[in-house]
Specification:
Distance between the termini: 54 Å
Shape: elongated
Order of helices and strands: HHHHHHHEHEHEEH
Strand content: 5-15%
Number of domains: 2
Length: about 230
Protein backbone atom coordinates (compact mmCIF):
# COMPACT_ATOMS: atom_id res chain seq x y z
CA UNK A 1 0.00 0.00 0.00
CA UNK A 2 2.80 2.37 0.92
CA UNK A 3 4.62 1.67 -2.35
CA UNK A 4 1.45 2.36 -4.29
CA UNK A 5 0.99 5.63 -2.39
CA UNK A 6 4.59 6.60 -3.12
CA UNK A 7 4.20 6.08 -6.87
CA UNK A 8 0.95 8.06 -6.79
CA UNK A 9 2.57 10.89 -4.84
CA UNK A 10 5.45 11.09 -7.33
CA UNK A 11 3.00 11.09 -10.24
CA UNK A 12 0.97 13.94 -8.72
CA UNK A 13 4.06 15.95 -7.85
CA UNK A 14 5.40 15.67 -11.40
CA UNK A 15 2.10 17.15 -12.54
CA UNK A 16 2.84 20.19 -10.38
CA UNK A 17 0.55 19.59 -7.40
CA UNK A 18 1.44 21.08 -4.03
CA UNK A 19 2.29 19.01 -0.96
CA UNK A 20 -0.96 20.15 0.63
CA UNK A 21 -2.98 18.96 -2.36
CA UNK A 22 -1.21 15.59 -2.45
CA UNK A 23 -1.67 15.07 1.30
CA UNK A 24 -5.41 15.60 0.89
CA UNK A 25 -5.50 12.63 -1.50
CA UNK A 26 -3.20 10.22 0.32
CA UNK A 27 -3.09 9.02 3.92
CA UNK A 28 0.59 9.65 4.62
CA UNK A 29 2.48 12.02 6.90
CA UNK A 30 4.07 15.20 5.61
CA UNK A 31 7.53 13.97 6.62
CA UNK A 32 7.05 10.78 4.60
CA UNK A 33 5.84 12.77 1.61
CA UNK A 34 8.84 15.09 1.84
CA UNK A 35 11.15 12.08 1.84
CA UNK A 36 9.45 10.58 -1.22
CA UNK A 37 9.44 13.80 -3.22
CA UNK A 38 12.75 15.40 -2.22
CA UNK A 39 14.36 14.61 -5.59
CA UNK A 40 11.42 15.69 -7.75
CA UNK A 41 12.17 18.99 -9.48
CA UNK A 42 9.36 21.23 -10.71
CA UNK A 43 9.49 23.34 -13.85
CA UNK A 44 9.59 27.16 -13.48
CA UNK A 45 5.96 27.26 -14.70
CA UNK A 46 4.87 24.71 -12.09
CA UNK A 47 6.68 26.64 -9.35
CA UNK A 48 4.98 29.86 -10.40
CA UNK A 49 1.57 28.16 -10.41
CA UNK A 50 2.06 27.03 -6.82
CA UNK A 51 2.75 30.53 -5.54
CA UNK A 52 0.13 32.64 -3.80
CA UNK A 53 -0.91 35.96 -5.36
CA UNK A 54 1.47 37.84 -3.06
CA UNK A 55 4.30 35.42 -3.78
CA UNK A 56 3.65 35.66 -7.52
CA UNK A 57 4.03 39.44 -7.28
CA UNK A 58 7.39 39.07 -5.56
CA UNK A 59 8.45 36.39 -8.07
CA UNK A 60 7.60 38.60 -11.05
CA UNK A 61 9.39 41.57 -9.46
CA UNK A 62 12.47 39.44 -8.77
CA UNK A 63 12.53 38.15 -12.34
CA UNK A 64 12.21 41.69 -13.70
CA UNK A 65 15.01 42.87 -11.43
CA UNK A 66 17.21 40.03 -12.66
CA UNK A 67 16.49 40.81 -16.33
CA UNK A 68 17.19 44.51 -15.72
CA UNK A 69 20.53 43.63 -14.10
CA UNK A 70 21.50 41.42 -17.04
CA UNK A 71 20.51 44.18 -19.48
CA UNK A 72 22.49 46.86 -17.60
CA UNK A 73 25.50 44.56 -17.34
CA UNK A 74 25.45 43.86 -21.07
CA UNK A 75 25.19 47.57 -21.88
CA UNK A 76 28.21 48.37 -19.68
CA UNK A 77 30.25 45.44 -21.02
CA UNK A 78 29.44 46.27 -24.66
CA UNK A 79 30.32 49.94 -24.12
CA UNK A 80 33.64 49.04 -22.45
CA UNK A 81 34.64 46.51 -25.11
CA UNK A 82 34.06 49.15 -27.81
CA UNK A 83 36.63 51.42 -26.09
CA UNK A 84 39.53 49.05 -26.73
CA UNK A 85 40.69 50.53 -30.08
CA UNK A 86 41.21 53.87 -28.30
CA UNK A 87 42.68 52.53 -25.05
CA UNK A 88 44.99 49.85 -26.44
CA UNK A 89 47.66 52.45 -27.26
CA UNK A 90 47.97 53.35 -23.56
CA UNK A 91 50.68 51.17 -21.94
CA UNK A 92 49.34 51.87 -18.44
CA UNK A 93 45.87 50.68 -19.46
CA UNK A 94 47.15 47.43 -21.02
CA UNK A 95 49.58 46.59 -18.19
CA UNK A 96 47.02 47.29 -15.47
CA UNK A 97 44.25 45.39 -17.21
CA UNK A 98 46.47 42.34 -17.69
CA UNK A 99 47.59 42.45 -14.06
CA UNK A 100 44.01 42.68 -12.88
CA UNK A 101 42.96 39.90 -15.25
CA UNK A 102 45.63 37.66 -13.71
CA UNK A 103 45.48 38.67 -10.05
CA UNK A 104 42.26 40.64 -9.52
CA UNK A 105 39.06 39.31 -7.98
CA UNK A 106 36.51 37.57 -10.19
CA UNK A 107 33.91 37.21 -7.45
CA UNK A 108 30.14 37.05 -7.87
CA UNK A 109 29.63 40.01 -5.53
CA UNK A 110 31.03 42.25 -8.29
CA UNK A 111 33.49 44.08 -6.05
CA UNK A 112 36.77 45.20 -7.59
CA UNK A 113 39.62 43.72 -5.54
CA UNK A 114 43.38 43.43 -5.97
CA UNK A 115 45.77 41.99 -3.38
CA UNK A 116 49.54 41.58 -3.31
CA UNK A 117 52.49 41.76 -0.92
CA UNK A 118 54.67 43.54 -3.50
CA UNK A 119 54.49 47.24 -2.61
CA UNK A 120 55.52 48.29 -6.14
CA UNK A 121 52.72 46.28 -7.70
CA UNK A 122 50.19 47.77 -5.28
CA UNK A 123 51.42 51.26 -6.16
CA UNK A 124 51.15 50.46 -9.87
CA UNK A 125 47.57 49.22 -9.51
CA UNK A 126 46.60 52.25 -7.42
CA UNK A 127 47.89 54.40 -10.29
CA UNK A 128 45.80 52.31 -12.71
CA UNK A 129 42.68 52.60 -10.57
CA UNK A 130 43.13 56.35 -10.18
CA UNK A 131 44.22 57.35 -13.69
CA UNK A 132 42.54 54.76 -15.92
CA UNK A 133 39.48 53.72 -13.90
CA UNK A 134 39.08 57.23 -12.43
CA UNK A 135 38.31 55.91 -8.94
CA UNK A 136 38.09 58.72 -6.36
CA UNK A 137 40.17 58.23 -3.21
CA UNK A 138 37.04 58.13 -1.06
CA UNK A 139 35.97 54.81 -2.63
CA UNK A 140 39.10 52.85 -1.73
CA UNK A 141 39.05 50.42 1.17
CA UNK A 142 42.18 48.62 2.36
CA UNK A 143 42.52 45.32 4.20
CA UNK A 144 45.88 44.06 5.47
CA UNK A 145 46.68 40.36 5.94
CA UNK A 146 49.67 39.83 8.21
CA UNK A 147 51.40 36.84 9.85
CA UNK A 148 51.72 37.32 13.59
CA UNK A 149 55.53 37.22 13.33
CA UNK A 150 55.43 40.29 11.09
CA UNK A 151 53.05 42.44 13.10
CA UNK A 152 54.49 45.90 13.65
CA UNK A 153 52.84 48.83 15.36
CA UNK A 154 53.29 51.10 12.37
CA UNK A 155 52.40 48.65 9.58
CA UNK A 156 49.03 50.30 9.04
CA UNK A 157 50.62 53.73 8.87
CA UNK A 158 53.25 52.37 6.47
CA UNK A 159 50.61 51.19 3.96
CA UNK A 160 48.49 54.28 4.51
CA UNK A 161 51.37 56.55 3.51
CA UNK A 162 52.36 54.27 0.65
CA UNK A 163 48.94 54.20 -1.07
CA UNK A 164 47.97 57.68 0.17
CA UNK A 165 44.72 56.48 1.73
CA UNK A 166 43.81 57.53 5.32
CA UNK A 167 43.69 54.85 8.03
CA UNK A 168 39.99 55.57 8.47
CA UNK A 169 39.44 53.71 5.19
CA UNK A 170 41.33 50.62 6.41
CA UNK A 171 39.54 47.53 7.71
CA UNK A 172 40.80 45.88 10.88
CA UNK A 173 43.94 43.88 9.89
CA UNK A 174 43.63 40.12 9.61
CA UNK A 175 46.44 38.50 11.60
CA UNK A 176 47.28 34.90 10.72
CA UNK A 177 49.08 32.77 13.26
CA UNK A 178 52.12 30.82 12.12
CA UNK A 179 54.16 27.98 13.58
CA UNK A 180 57.45 29.55 12.50
CA UNK A 181 59.76 30.51 15.34
CA UNK A 182 61.24 33.63 13.80
CA UNK A 183 60.76 36.10 10.98
CA UNK A 184 62.37 35.03 7.73
CA UNK A 185 61.88 38.33 5.93
CA UNK A 186 62.32 41.40 8.09
CA UNK A 187 61.14 43.65 5.25
CA UNK A 188 57.81 41.88 4.83
CA UNK A 189 54.83 44.10 5.63
CA UNK A 190 52.00 41.69 4.92
CA UNK A 191 49.59 41.51 2.00
CA UNK A 192 47.67 44.61 1.03
CA UNK A 193 44.18 44.09 -0.41
CA UNK A 194 42.57 47.01 -2.24
CA UNK A 195 38.76 46.93 -2.52
CA UNK A 196 36.44 49.18 -4.53
CA UNK A 197 32.73 48.49 -4.08
CA UNK A 198 31.60 49.51 -7.55
CA UNK A 199 29.58 47.05 -9.63
CA UNK A 200 29.66 49.32 -12.65
CA UNK A 201 33.47 49.39 -12.61
CA UNK A 202 33.60 45.61 -12.12
CA UNK A 203 31.43 45.15 -15.24
CA UNK A 204 33.45 47.72 -17.15
CA UNK A 205 36.65 45.80 -16.45
CA UNK A 206 34.91 42.66 -17.70
CA UNK A 207 34.08 44.51 -20.90
CA UNK A 208 37.68 45.64 -21.30
CA UNK A 209 38.86 42.05 -20.92
CA UNK A 210 36.43 40.87 -23.60
CA UNK A 211 37.51 43.72 -25.86
CA UNK A 212 41.19 42.88 -25.35
CA UNK A 213 40.53 39.24 -26.15
CA UNK A 214 38.71 40.22 -29.33
CA UNK A 215 41.32 42.85 -30.30
CA UNK A 216 44.06 40.21 -30.30
CA UNK A 217 41.74 37.52 -31.67
CA UNK A 218 42.21 35.25 -28.66
CA UNK A 219 39.32 32.84 -28.29
CA UNK A 220 39.92 29.49 -26.54
CA UNK A 221 37.68 26.59 -27.50
CA UNK A 222 35.94 26.63 -24.13
CA UNK A 223 35.27 30.37 -24.29
CA UNK A 224 31.67 31.59 -24.19
CA UNK A 225 30.52 35.14 -24.56
CA UNK A 226 29.22 35.71 -21.03
CA UNK A 227 29.12 38.73 -18.77
CA UNK A 228 30.68 36.96 -15.80
CA UNK A 229 34.02 35.24 -15.50
CA UNK A 230 35.31 35.61 -19.06
Amino acid sequence: MKLKDKFKAIELRKKGLSYKSILSRLEVSKSTLSLWLRDIELTPVQIKNLLTSQEKGRYVAAQKKKLDRVKRTKEIVDSARSELPLLVENPLFIAGLCLYWAEGAKNPTESVKFANSDETMILFMMKWFREVCLVPDSKFRVHLHIHDLHVKKDVGQYWSELVNIPLGQFYKPYIKHTSLGQRRNILYNGTCSITISDKKLFRKILGWKVGLREFYNISPRSSTDRTEGF
